[in-house]
Amino acid sequence: MGSVVSLLAACGSTPNQQPAPVVERTTSTVKPVDNAVAAVAPVPSGRGYYTVKKGDTLYRIALDVGQNWRDIVAWNNLTNPNDIKVDQVLRVAPPDRAGGAPQTAAVVAAPGAGLDVRPLGAPGAAAPAASAPLASGGNKTGPRGDKRAYSDSALAELEKPDATPAAAAPAAAGAKPEAAHAADKPAAASQSAAGDDEGVSWMWPADGKVVGTFDGGKKGVDIAGKDGQSVLAAAGGKVMYAGSGIRGYGNLVIIKHTNNLLSAYAHNKTILVKEGQSVTKGQKIAEMGKSDSDSVKLHFEIRQQGKPVDPSKYLPPR
What we know:
This protein has 318 residues and is of the alpha+beta class. It contains 8 helices and 12 strands. It has helices spanning 2-13, 22-39, 58-65, 69-75, 104-113, 128-137, 152-158, 165-198, and strands spanning 49-51, 89-91, 210-212, 221-224, 230-232, 237-243, 251-256, 261-271, 278-279, 284-288, 297-304, 307-309. Strands 3, 4, 5, 6, 7, 8, 9, 10, 11 and 12 form a 10-stranded antiparallel sheet that branches. The protein has a two-stranded antiparallel ribbon with strand order 1-2. The longest helix is centred in the middle third of the chain and has 34 residues, at 165-198.
């Protein structure tokens, strides 16, 4: 009889030793949230960004956007400037100038910060717009729809707003001048940049017959000459590129004159300047040749914000 009682006691205690499945439920509810946060991370796009296309090189991208290729390497933390991939998104403007760029870190963090575990109908579950006045007026401990006997004092108390509009008015009024000044800054910056562009003094970079024009479908002008002929800086500035890494241009020199304007000198036989070097108007920067060309000539471009413009509108008449 004692052994039967012991057996029954053992059977009765077995179910109580099984763990509750609470931990697995908690884990399963966290994973979808993490996946959702990772899924909404946006890809940077818009002004200040460039999506790599087939055949692109970092040097050509830099020329097309009017930036120094070394800066693009730094802005994107690239270890090898020759290792870029199709559909890769590159920052091609300084971080403080990449307008319209999404703040990726802020967007990723936002879903987690906005999670609310309170059930529907719980206090504080109202929409954020409705709860905004409560933040300035203090927490409420009960509804306002309580029953009271009519009196002038009770009516006056019920008509009091939760937040005093007069307190917000000075702040709003003070924000207008700031907004006005902020709106004036881009216009002032553009006017300053335009003034800098107009102040650049230009000259022809080489003597010789013009054999190709911007109107004829070129991105600049082609000037025929002799092998080893001097190529001169068309205006003062800083050498932004000196090398042969851009297909179709051969030995190329690029000089930056302002934040908007640069000039390019292609097909040289020999390059006489280095990147980062300051040059003056009329300084010899290269010798004419036919690198990546079928004849001896200088291909000369002027670019404004990375886009080719007609050099004849800048160069003096001959």
